[in-house]
Amino acid sequence: MITTNRFFHVNKRSRGFFEGWYFKHQIGSQVYAFIPGISIDDKGEKHAFIQVISQDTAHYFHFPAEEMKVDEVAQQVTIGDNLFSLRGIKIALHSAELSIEGSLTYDHLTPIKHSTYAPSVMGPFSYLSFMECYHGILSMGHTLSGTLSWNGEVLALEGGKGYIEKDWGTSFPAAYIWVQSNLFDNADARFFFSAADIPFLGSTFLGLICILQIGDKEYRFATYYGGKITDIVREEDRLTVLLRQKDLQLAIIIETMEGHPLQAPSRGAMGRIIRESASTTFQLTLKQNGQDLLTDRGTMAGFEEVGNLRGFRY
């Protein structure tokens, strides 16, 4: 069985595989995300990496594979002098363009709900061993404390909010949309959305996973719960995605931004370029049987858009 609840998966793969974690930190109009991971191409050549993205820039730090160590029990990964865990991070990254040092501590992590049918955000697809890309959410939101020195400027993230997800497999989907934020007018709101073209048994289907948490309440739209995208419309710099699941309807109106270039996996190798904005704004409207349950605005959101999802022209 493949399960997204494990912290580490790549140790049994020798070629054509990747694994990466996404540690995001928000405070006010500032966003700082770190993506540690490992890449193994089709020839078995491997290297570790740390990608850094902020509202202003993105950088890729390359490391020999042997500098990456993972402790499954402690749920932490170290790459060089950098440590990433569910308790916090320690950063020591230096290049000609960017120097970052410091440490952050996490508290009050917020997991998603689990069941036997849906042991992870991927639902029953978690049990399959042949998916192109697996996804896991480790914390929808948590509090931050500590500081980072960013090119000599001290950044105090006390009172900020964090988010942790992860991906592993062979390649990112050929076409997908991804949006995430836990900075809303409603301080108890946290949001994640992803839709992608999913290769499956010689065919392809449009897969949907979306979670809106408001305090202890979780609304989840997913293909495995009968959730569907009913429309995608582009109007200038806005992308509207409409979802329906039973008696629930969700509208996501995204202010699209081109973002910064990131390296993404294709058959394990980090040779594909995508673009991520770390400072997008979007609006959510959640309805039940046509009656408004929530209207809110997410800010400093992560946003990626690659290709066109099957069945839609926008």
From TrEMBL:
Gene Ontology molecular function terms on file: tocopherol cyclase activity
A Pfam family this chain is assigned to: Tocopherol_cycl
SUPFAM superfamilies named in the record: AttH-like
Domain of life: Bacteria
Coiled coil, from the record: none
PANTHER family from the UniProt entry: PTHR35309, TOCOPHEROL CYCLASE
Protein name: Tocopherol cyclase
Species in which this protein is naturally found: Candidatus Enterococcus testudinis
Source lineage: Bacteria, Bacillati, Bacillota, Bacilli, Lactobacillales
